[in-house]
Amino acid sequence: MTIDKNKVDHWNRILSIGYELKVTPGRGDGVFSTKSFSIGDIVMVGVIEKTLTANHSHASQVSASLHVQHAGLISKVNHSCNPSCGISVNASGAHDFIAFRDIEQGEEITFDYAMRNYSIDYFPDPCLCGEVTCRVHVNGWKGLSIEKRDEYEGFVAPYLLQMSDKISLAT
Ligand SMILES: [Zn+2]
Fold it and tell me: Please, how many CA atoms are within 13 Å of residue 158, restricted to the half-sphere of its CB?
């Protein structure tokens, strides 16, 4: 699936409200808030630009077998083991980024890749997020502790929960 380039540009203009691309200290590009958000607010609206035939470093996993590329800056949002945002699936099937906690103006917008990907094939090891609670080796939802899965409840891609159910039923 591909969508019209003008439509992507149109969405990009809308999507740029509330955040901007900046250079992080030591971790390349990052997306930063330009206003404050409260927990549960939609921070970035997801638009699927195209479906992909395979996983790659900017892919988003949206089901057990499907990877897509989101339009705009969503693919530039960095991972954190202590993220400011989580995932919510919108009506188009794309991933919106939702404030996982209150976010101040100027804070980096981050999410935990494990909120979106069952396994992670493309990721610098060790993790560079710098958080006290850094997991060091980030290997997706399948590698998350039960405690972390509970903490992220309501902020992860729903297919991950279905995969967990299948696996726990199978074992
Ligand atoms: Zn980390």
Answer: 7
